[in-house]
Amino acid sequence: MKFVPEKKPIYEETLDSLTEKLVEMNEKPFRAKQVIEWLYKKRVGSWDEMTNLPKTLRSKLSEQFEIAPAKQILTKQSGDITDKLLLQLGDGSLIETVIIRVPQEGVGLEHSRKTVCISTQVGCAFGCRFCASGLDGWKRNLSTGEIVAQLLQVCFLEDARTPRARPEIPSFDNIVVMGMGEPLANYDNLLAALKIINADWGLNFGARRITVSTSGVVPQIKRLAEEPFQFRLAISLHGATNEVREQIMPINKRWPLEELLPAAKLFSQKQGRMLTLEYILIEEVNDQLEQAEHLADIANDLRAHVNLIPYNTVEGLPWKRPGIPRQDRFVSILKEQGVSVTIRREKGHEIDAACGQLRLRTEKELQTAK
Ligand code: SAH
Ligand code: SF4
To answer: Ligand 2 centroid vs 181 CA: distance in angstroms?
Structure first.
């Protein structure tokens, strides 16, 4: 069943679409600019705070538009490094948004670099064997407004925590679209949201600081390659041969490496951007030396950076994270082949920071509480 909200989320509107709507409501076009400025530069969370709008207009707007389509129901912190927000949407669905801080020498954590990880779907249809997001299947796509609202929610939190000299600029440095769901399977809503996030009247956040992660939806990678925005792309590879990849990622049957890799190459050529290959290390599944060799060939051919992620244990799944010596051996093979490689030493492991886990646990608790 499709979820139809009673009111339209205001975060779906662009400056143009809101101007049109206000004119239809017999209001002056410049009111749209005022509303948008309150939303994205002053970032208020209610109509009443928009003090330069006449009261009558505020009440008209509040009848038509919803300002907060996501409600924060839980925040989990992990040693100040990671904040995980569990958000409840209008239909009761739960999604996750994560703030990851990178500690820097001489800088307090509140002023350190921050990356925000956002979700694009409730659940996921792709069913990768290692991932908590897909365990309960796919429920629905997030709307454009729900994608944008996650970032506003982070802004509300961070603005209140750390007053800054230029509060109109969001306090985070990067956005990664790596939360729950497959972003490229919700292409239109995602693109509309990214345009609002990127627009100078919106969050004014540079496309080059936004990374979209995909499990390999080939036609949409090709489509993204043609877009005029320079978003970064990360491909979740997790297997360097079809044989290994299709064991853990059913999508590989639909779009095997011989289709995925040329699409990835097309993207980096058209956009002139270096790709990232994400590779989870799972013991004795994809962490063999031979896989490292194949991965090095792929990375060198694509001139891609490799980000290794030691597997994060998911309750109910049998996979294991390899020990540090095995991880290091994998890294050194890539390095020997001249690949640019980083290994993520897990942040926020103890708060279920991997994709979909907090939501899964909370949904289970809610079900048993019923
Ligand atoms: N659907 C997209 C984006 C969301 S998943 C994609 O697959 O790329 C974001 C990242 O989290 C992916 O690289 C995914 O493989 C990784 N991930 C999922 N489950 C994980 C786990 N248990 N441990 C570590 N990383 C995981
Ligand atoms: Fe979906 Fe990505 Fe998880 Fe695969 S890894 S199930 S594509 S969210």
So the answer is: 6
